[in-house]
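User: I'm putting together notes for a lab meeting next week and I want to include a structural view of one of the chains we've been expressing. I don't have a solved structure, so I'd like a prediction I can at least talk through. The sequence is below, exactly as it appears in our construct file.
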Amino acid sequence: MPQHADDQALDQQAGVAELRLATGDRGSGPPHEGVAEGLPVDRNQAILEAAKQVGSILKREGHAFALAGSVAVYAHGGSENLQHDVDFCFRPEDAQAVADSLRAAGLSVYTPPEDWLLKTDCFGQQVDLIFQLAHQPVTTELLERARPLPVDSVFMPVLSPTDLVHSLVAAFSEHHCDFGAVLPIARTLREKVDWDALRRACGSDPMPDAFFYFLERLDVIPPGPSHKPEEAP
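Assistant: Thanks for the context. Below is the predicted structure for the 233-residue chain, given as structure tokens.
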């Protein structure tokens, strides 16, 4: 079928325009979704099993990706108090290939209204496939800074602590600024994060700057250059 000029313009746009081909029917769950009935009732363990399953598929197919979110915090030594889903990040140009691999493995991949991720379900748990972190496209450099860590028994690339915290802090805005959710993560990873690099990356954005000051007052991190007390003459 001939392609109209408007369609060609859409195909040339980066990111979500190409994800039309990756949409799927959310109602048609993966063939092995029933395995969830045999999983432990514990929600944290179910989330870990979903992370291991999807991570294993992405590794087997040779995709460039990194684990993010609360499961990444767990992999870096955080508590097993996981949030409601699993997060993986990958480059926008790899969206179609990632979707194809997961579908071939029996998972249903679909496009939500948000234009910065895909979604799938595994063992009854939601898995977010993110190609923008903190409003910026996931890059090769970001993924290269990830390092392999065990998630239970499965090794997979995990975002570096600095990139992981940056993805959370840089997302703060007037409409979403939950310091309480990120505080325990900052406490857990504080010795592994390059806070100076994080301050430089966030610049003078008011919400991240306020969070850094909040961490300073709680003695989680040392004062930044602009907040250090002046020496007496």
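A couple of points you could mention at the meeting. Confidence is low (pLDDT under 50) at residues 1-36. The two ends are 79 Å apart (CA to CA).

User: Perfect, that's what I needed.
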